[in-house]
Each structure stands twice: as C-alpha cells, then as structure tokens.
C-alpha cells in the first residue's frame, strides 16, 4: 500500500495562497498476501504562512488507513528569503520527531527519506512543524 499525501493548493478565506510543496510517501506492506499500490490522497487546507518568529507552525496530516510503513519519503518546497532561519520537523502519530532541516543550514534538501520509520504503523495524525527562529522575514510552505 502506498499512502501519498499530496498538497496541491491552499486556500485561506477563499483566496489561493499558492502551490504547496510537501509530498510524503508512506510505502507500506500489508500483512495480507494480496498487496495494492493504490495511492491515498489527503488534502490539507490551512494557512501556509511561516510566522511569527519563534512560534512553531504545525501542519497536520491524518492517515486513516491501518498500514505498516516500509519507507517514508518527504519532498519539501519552502519559499523563504533565508532558509537558514528555519527548523523543520516531522512528528509521527507516536510522537517521534525527525528533524528535516536545521537552523543555520542555508539549503533545504528537497527530498528526504526516513527509513528508520520502517515497521511502524502509519495510522494517525502526522505533523510537519516549522519554526522561523529570526524576526523580520516571513515565508510560505
């Protein structure tokens, strides 16, 4: 089973905020003999703004399917004048935290694989947490 989160466009007050660049693929293997590769698309509608500084912005993702993870691949696109000001984390339903980008690094890796999630259950609420550590600039996810 492939669980695929695709965030296409965000809307706030009925106005499009722009393209969102987050794609999470949860490659899971079902415990039954017949496996499917039907993607499950989950759309997220909420603010895409990364602000105010120092305050964590959480973007929730909910997986309703009960499936065991084989691999997680994350693609992130952030529009921010200085990505070195950002800390980005992925939080799992079991509250494990994986840092995807650390403050001080001027380059955000566009694709990240987290193989250590293999064997865990995918079902539940996932969160992408973004923290802008400096004042003066805003960005969008």
Q: Would you mind describing this structure in some detail?
A:
This protein is mostly beta strands and 141 residues long. It has one domain: Jelly Rolls (Sandwich), CATH 2.60.120.260. It is 0% helix and 48% strand. It is built from no helices and 13 strands. The chain has strands at 2-6, 9-12, 15-19, 21-28, 40-42, 49-50, 57-63, 69-77, 86-91, 97-101, 111-113, 124-132, 139-140. The strands form four sheets. Strands 5-1-4-8-11 form a five-stranded mixed beta sheet, with no helix packed on it. Strands 7-12-9-10 form a four-stranded antiparallel beta sheet, with no helix packed on it. A hairpin with a 5-residue loop joins β9 (86-91) and β10 (97-101). Mean pLDDT is 63; it is low at 1-24 and 29-46.
Would you spell out the secondary-structure blueprint of this structure?
Blueprint: E1 2-6, E2 9-12, E3 15-19, E4 21-28, E5 40-42, E6 49-50, E7 57-63, E8 69-77, E9 86-91, E10 97-101, E11 111-113, E12 124-132, E13 139-140
Parallel strand pairs: 1-5
Antiparallel strand pairs: 1-4, 2-3, 4-8, 6-13, 7-12, 8-11, 9-10, 9-12
Give keywords.
single chain; disordered N terminus; Jelly Rolls; mainly beta; elongated; 141 residues; 5-stranded mixed β-sheet; 4-stranded antiparallel β-sheet
How many H/I helices? Answer: 0
What is the CATH topology classification name?
A: Jelly Rolls
Low-confidence stretches: 1-24, 29-46
CATH architectural category: Sandwich
SSE class: mainly beta
Question: Could you say which overall geometry the principal axes of the C-alpha atoms support?
Answer: elongated
Looking at this structure, what is the CATH superfamily? Galactose-binding domain-like
Number of domains: 1
Helix content: under 10%
Cα-to-Cα separation, first versus last residue = 27 Å
CATH class: Mainly Beta
Instruction: Estimate the mean pLDDT confidence.
Output: 63
The strand order across the widest sheet is 5-1-4-8-11
C-alpha Rg (nearest Å) = 15 Å
> What's the count of strands?
13
Largest sheet: 5 strands, mixed
Strand content: over 45%
Please trace the helix and strand order, writing H or E for each element. EEEEEEEEEEEEE
